[in-house]
Amino acid sequence: xxxxASAVLLESLLKTLKLxxxxxxxxxxxxxxxxxxxxxxxxxxxxxxxxxxVREQKGIARRLRKADxxxxxxxxxxxxxxVPKLNKQRVLxxxxxxxxxxxxxxxxxxxxxxxxxxxxxxxxxxxxxQGRKVQYSTAAGLVTAFAEARxxxxxxxxxxxxxxxxxxxxxxxxxxxxxxxxAETLFNFFSQCYERISLIVTTNLPFSQWPQVFxxxxxxxALLDRLTxxxxxxxxxxxxxxxxxxxxxxxxxxxxxxxx
Length: 260
Ligand code: ADP
Ligand code: MG
Prior knowledge:
Shape: elongated
CATH class of the largest domain: Alpha Beta
Number of strands: 5
CATH architecture of the largest domain: 3-Layer(aba) Sandwich
CATH superfamily of the largest domain: P-loop containing nucleotide triphosphate hydrolases
Number of helices: 12
Bound molecules: adenosine-5'-diphosphate, magnesium ion
Mean pLDDT: 91
C-alpha cells in the first residue's frame, strides 16, 4: 500500500474506533518519536495518554455544562477569613468527595449572604471534576419541575434523570413556605435520593423550624429523617458577605476625598 493510501485507511479506522486525539496527533507524535529514536511503545503510550487526557477534559466540561450551575463559584474564590468560625479544613475535606462515595448529604445552614450557595456550587464543581454527575436546582425550581413533569406526564422521565445523578444541589430550601403538594414532592424526592444520591442542601432554616415551613409535621419528620441520616451539617455564622462588600465599597468611595 502507498503511504497515502495507508494514511487514509488508518484515519478511517481511527474514526471508527472513536479515537479523535489519535487521529489529530499521530503524525506529530510519529515525527517526534522518529526524531528522538523513541520506541514504538513510547509512540503508542504518548497517544493513548493524550486520548485519555482529552477525553477526561471533555467529560469534565460536559458535566459542568449539564449541571446548570447558576454561577461559576470556586473554592479558591472563597474568602475563609470572612467566616472565621467556619472550619476551612472541614470544607476542604468535604471537597475531596468521600461523601459522594458513601451517598452522604451536606447541609449548609446559615443566614442570607454568608456563602452557602457559593460553597455548594464550589463543591458541585469539584464533584464534576471527580467524574460525578451533578444537577443544580433551587428547592422551588425542583418543586416546579416535578409539578410540570406530572402535568405533561413526564414524571417517569424526570425521575429517571434524577436517578442518573450522583449529586443534586437543592438550593434555598425554606426561603418560601411550601404548600402541601410541594412538601410532598420534596418528600418523594428526598426518598428517591436516600442512600443512592448525595444531596447538598442550603437553607436559612434551623431544623426546628422546618415543620412550620413544610406545613405537615409528620411529613417533615420523615423528610428530615432521610436527609439527616447520613449528613454533614455545616453551620455558617456571620454577617452577609454581600452586605459587607457593598458597605466596604461605599466606605471606600466616601473615604476617597477629592474623588468625583
Ligand atoms: P447565601 O447562599 O448564603 O445567601 P451566597 O453564597 O449567595 O450566600 O453569597 C452571596 C455572594 O457573596 C456571592 O456572590 C458569593 O460568591 C459571595 N460570598 C459570600 N461569602 C463569601 C466569601 N466568604 N468569600 C468570597 N465570596 C463570598
Ligand atoms: Mg444562597
